[in-house]
Specification:
elongated, mainly alpha, 64 residues, 4 helices, 72% helix
Length: 64
């Protein structure tokens, strides 16, 4: 499974079945997180979202 949507669908199915402790769930979760991190690693908004911090949109607008 390399399609992002297929990965998310399978992870969702495992979650709904209560299989969050299984090896497949852990591997899919790590793979999806890694892909998100690769895509948004330098994105301040993504980092702030993970940390639960508010994002100052005015700073982004000023930088553009």
């Amino acid at each position: 499974m390399s399609n992002n949507q297929q990965l998310l669908d399978r992870l969702y199915a495992l979650s709904m079945d209560g299989a969050q402790a299984g090896a497949e769930f852990v591997q899919l979760d790590a793979l999806i997180y890694r892909r998100l991190e690769m895509t948004y690693a330098d994105d301040e908004a993504f980092e702030a979202h993970i940390a639960g911090e508010p994002v100052e949109l005015a700073a982004f607008a000023a930088a553009a």
